[in-house]
Write a structure and sequence with these properties.
Blueprint: E1 2-5, H1 15-27, E2 31-36, H2 42-54, E3 61-64, H3 83-97, E4 102-104, H4 108-117, E5 122-124
Helix pairs in contact: 3-4
The structure holds magnesium ion.
């Protein structure tokens, strides 16, 4: 099983649960990716890795959504989305590309983009 975890409003709400979940998934041969819309500066990434370590979250990949102008930015093909939704859509794309089965996410905007563009991925609210 491949699981994606959001950080703010998700892992931060119940770190003990996501610690257990992440370790169980990986122990069973699954994959855990952490995808965040935090700004991916080297400093922020260092801080985020420290937090994940302190919460005992095990993961295979930590992904920051690239902002506009970043060469790693994923091009959104959906013209109906506004600039912010296109930014958030990258979260969906990252999950689709990695064959994610389920995602834990608290942001209603992100959830609605998952429902529209990746209906096969199950979305769980952290609370
Ligand atoms: Mg969140």
């Amino acid at each position: 099983m491949r699981v994606a975890l959001d950080i703010d409003g998700t892992i931060t709400e119940k770190p003990e649960f996501f610690s257990l979940l992440s370790r169980a998934v990986r122990r069973e041969g699954g994959m855990v990716i952490v995808v965040t819309s935090r700004l991916g500066t080297p400093e922020a990434e260092k801080e985020t890795r420290k937090e994940l370590l302190a919460w005992k979250i095990e993961f295979d990949e930590l992904i920051f959504l690239p902002p506009a102008g970043d060469p790693r930015r994923l091009t959104c093909p959906h013209e109906g989305l506004d600039w912010y939704e296109k930014y958030l859509w990258q979260k969906v794309k990252v999950c689709l590309d990695r064959g994610v089965d389920l995602v834990f996410e608290d942001d209603p905007k992100v959830i609605s983009i998952f429902e529209k563009y990746a209906p096969a991925i199950r979305v769980f609210l952290p609370c």
